[in-house]
Amino acid sequence: MRVLGIDPGLTRCGLGVVEGGVGRPLRLIDVNVVRTSADLPIAERLVTIERGIDAWLDEYRPDAVAVERVFARSDSSTIMGTAQASGIALVAAARRGLPVALHTPSEVKAAVSGNGRADKAQVGAMVARILRLDAPPKPADAADALALAITHVWRGGAQARIEAAAAAAAAARSSR
Amino acid sequence: MRVLGIDPGLTRCGLGVVEGGVGRPLRLIDVNVVRTSADLPIAERLVTIERGIDAWLDEYRPDAVAVERVFARSDSSTIMGTAQASGIALVAAARRGLPVALHTPSEVKAAVSGNGRADKAQVGAMVARILRLDAPPKPADAADALALAITHVWRGGAQARIEAAAAAAAAARSSR
User: Fold this and answer.
1) Where along the chain is Mg(2+) 1 bound (chains A, B) (predicted)?
2) How many angstroms separate the Cα of B24 from the Cα of each of A11, A167, B126?
3) In this predicted model, what pLDDT tens digit does every residue of A57-82 receive, in sequence order?
4) Exposed, middle or buried: residue B44 (CB in 10 Å: 0-12, 13-18, 19+)?
């Protein structure tokens, strides 16, 4: 299973692709960060992020996409841009019919480090260990994107199956 | 000048197209609301909204798009979905190279009613009067989308020109 993890952000949007399965070693395919300048209008910044995500979906053809779930209680100065970027990520995946899952920051931290309140250094170190890298990926957004993808593989796509079943049930209800 | 106003929302996304110019009468071209079910996964809801906006951009070919600026201080239970929908609207317009402007709710209320704290009924009544409609458009999201488009025409695209100049200056700076 190949998963694209996306850590949404307007200034830095982390993208990380890993391949593997539950109980099998995970392998880093690629990791990068799409950056956009705060000097540009927001619409152009979002288009740049969309193009970056679309290019990776074309190139790496993941089986699923995992996006960080954004909460309104986060730092309010950047939260709107983060939410907008997450919307772009969700649509880019869903438009291609790819399963999309949202994982919270604490779910991701717990999955990779065993501690839902792990700090960035700990997450980076665990991502490096899990993927057998020489050093933690930089910047933190890159490590977070990989941690999301790892989390998604390890949760075994169970959440995606539940959501697909719920969507199918909802579709059946609304077509009655 | 033909403007598409978008009042972003996940459950109801208002779309309104008006045509006219500063000092000339405004005309309603069309108004509607894209609705998505809360039973569906968020990614699918956003794709439905994207399709609705794209269909209107294809059909009405506006010269500019006006989107409501969303603030983090709004009702937090729906704010993330609203922000995500607004990101979709911004990208749909910018992807086509259309000028996009953001107007705040109080700018819109002030533009159509002279009062930045006007209530929904007042905004609906003024939209009906300005566009010479028999009754205020329903639901409020439809009226709000038209109010956004009206505001954009009346502000004379001045904001769009300022933003374009700022973007050009920024591009010139970064290419140096």
Assistant:
1) 7, 141
2) 41, 48, 16
3) 999 999 999 999 988 765 567 889 99
4) buried
Please list, in sequence order, all residues whose beta carbon lies within 8 angstroms of the beta carbon of residue B119, skipping any fewer than 6 positions away.
Answer: none
What chain B holds in terms of domains, given with CATH numbers, is 2-175 (3.30.420.10)
Cβ pair A119, A129 in contact under 8 A:
no
Nearest CA-CA partner of B12 in B102, B78, B69: B78
Size of interface A-B (CB pairs under 8 A): 104
pLDDT in tens, A125-144: 999 999 999 999 999 999 99
Interface of B with A (CB under 8 A): 37, 39-44, 46-47, 50, 70-73, 76, 79-80, 83-88, 90-91, 93-95, 100, 102, 163, 166-167, 170-171, 173-174
Residues A68, A108 contacting (CB under 8 angstroms): yes
